[in-house]
Specification:
The protein is an alpha/beta fold. It has two domains: about 270 residues, 3-Layer(aba) Sandwich (Rossmann fold), CATH 3.40.50; about 190 residues, Rossmann fold, CATH 3.40.50.2000. Helix content is about 40%, strand content about 20%. It has 19 helices and 15 strands. The strands form two sheets. The protein has a nine-stranded mixed sheet with strand order 3-4-5-2-1-6-7-8-9, with helices on both faces. α13 links the parallel β11 and β12. The radius of gyration is 23 Å and the shape is elongated.
Length: about 475
């Protein structure tokens, strides 16, 4: 099948969140299954064309309501996947960033959706390639299913199926009515949008007009059908339950591999981690300026510092734990100023036990995955999450809240000999729940070494590759194409 992924970001070209990691690895997994998968994204100004061997493909004029724009299309191949980068002044190219503010992102991502349609037609005319499925991701590309439906009187477009992946329902691209009108987008008269007053919500438009909808974990597909996690779209989502699927994200197991990772102080696998992994813990303690001691449980955190990630309920718990328990804590992340301040003060107040790196650094992140004993991820909600999977891949046991993809990927410790379990799970969204689970984990670390090692081995052997998920997506594409026929 010919499949086009439309996205606002993709690793290694532009990365803000987990969406970039998905687009950086899922298309290549699908190509290995024999599908002709390609990706289209904005050509941001910071993308290094020389580094990524990006070359100019063609330029064409695009007529729209406000005039005519020159659209320049660039291309490269990454891990076997053709990527197309579209540039057009003033929205994309030159100094453009991934996300800015609502007043700028609103018109430029609407414009991006429009020029994706135009670019696809140019690709058909120039190189003879046209998609059978357009796979859109989050609100930034959410207008595409509607625009394709608008063209369904043309046989070529009528056969194009659309699939939407919701990576995070909290971000919707709402209140776009004025921008949509200014861009010349026709009225969205789908009854499920009209009666819920959602005709100017980009994600809602995509939910209404896509042939099928996926979320990035099975649990999240259930959660978003209810008001507590639906962010105002739960009613609309319930109208599409028959077309809603939860497909768990994977990770790039070649990129994230402790047996080949050149950034680590010592490489290891699930057969020799008990002897070698401790060398990475010592290295992490050294670079953080903390006492080098194998017996002290080391807690790691790598996260965007936003409310979603549950840092607000973790900080009071960590402060109480550090007062009376001999543990170490190392955090890495940036984001909300209040949360940054809270983590920074924690590091200052307990400088002999804690460090807070208020930045993002790939090398430090991998040292934390490979050196921490426990990986903290107390999210209020988590559509899928990658941190817990990366931690398990590297042998750090995750401590998570039971929500979304965290519930789907982390099996709670059984409290005994670890006949089951890959981490520690709590449900209550309160600091006391985080603290109680932290104390449980620390006690297990000290009192039941065999159970701890058994969980580490099981976690490291968990299959988080894209193979199974890619197969599920391929099945859904076939279903969508058949429905169009």
């Amino acid at each position: 099948m010919n499949v086009l992924f439309a996205t606002a970001e993709a690793y290694p070209f532009a990365k803000v969140g987990g969406l970039a990691d998905v687009i950086g690895s899922l298309p290549s997994a699908l190509r290995r299954e024999g599908h002709d998968v390609r990706v289209i994204m904005p050509g941001y100004g910071f993308i290094d064309h020389n580094k990524h061997n990006i070359s100019h493909l063609f330029t064409f004029p695009f007529d729209h309501r406000e005039g005519t724009s020159d659209i320049s299309v660039y291309t490269t191949v990454h891990e076997g996947v053709p990527f197309y980068f579209v540039q057009s002044w003033p929205y994309f190219g030159q100094d453009s960033m991934v996300y800015t503010d609502w007043n700028w992102d609103s018109p430029r991502f609407i414009f991006f959706n429009q020029i994706v349609i135009a670019t696809l037609w140019e690709l058909r005319q120039r190189i003879g390639w046209f998609p059978e499925v357009v796979h859109v991701n989050d609100w930034h590309t959410g207008l595409l299913p509607f625009l394709i439906t608008e063209k369904s009187s043309q046989p070529e477009w009528a056969r194009v199926a659309t699939v939407l992946s919701i990576h995070n329902l909290a971000y919707q691209g709402d209140h776009m009515g004025g921008w949509l009108w200014k861009a010349g987008v026709h009225g969205r008269h789908h009854p499920n949008l009209v009666y819920q007053d959602l005709t100017d919500n980009m994600l809602a438009i995509s939910i209404a007009y896509s042939d099928f909808i996926t979320t990035v974990s099975p649990r999240y597909a259930i959660e978003i059908q209810y008001p507590y996690m639906g962010y105002g779209l739960d009613g609309l989502i319930r109208t599409r339950v028959a077309d809603l699927y939860g497909i768990l994200n994977g990770i790039d197991i070649d990129r994230w591999n402790p047996s080949t990772d050149k950034l680590l102080a010592a490489r290891y696998d699930d057969t020799d981690f008990q002897e070698k992994r401790v060398l990475n813990k010592r290295h992490l303690q050294e670079i953080a300026g903390l006492p080098v001691d194998d017996t002290i449980p080391l807690i790691g955190l790598v996260s965007r510092l936003v409310w979603q990630k549950g840092i607000d309920i973790a900080l009071p718990a960590l402060r109480r734990l550090l007062v009376d328990t001999n543990v170490q804590f190392i955090a890495l992340g940036t984001g909300d100023a209040v949360l940054e301040t809270g983590l920074g003060r924690l590091g200052q107040d307990f400088n002999w036990r804690a460090r807070a790196y208020l930045q993002y650094d790939d090398a430090v992140a991998q040292h934390i995955y490979a050196g921490a004993d426990l990986f903290l991820m107390p999210s209020h909600f988590e559509p899928c999450g990658m941190g817990q999977m990366l931690a398990m891949r590297y042998g750090a046991l995750p401590l998570v809240r039971e929500t979304g993809g965290l519930a789907d990927t982390v099996e709670n410790y059984d409290g005994g000999n670890a006949e089951r379990g890959t981490g520690f799970v709590f449900s209550w969204e309160k600091p006391d729940a985080v603290l109680g689970t932290l104390r449980w984990a620390v006690n297990t670390y000290h009192e039941n070494k065999e159970a701890w090692a058994r969980m580490q081995r099981r976690a490291m052997r968990s299959d988080f590759s894209w193979r199974k998920s890619a197969g599920e997506y391929a099945d859904l594409y076939r279903k969508a194409v058949n429905a169009r026929k």
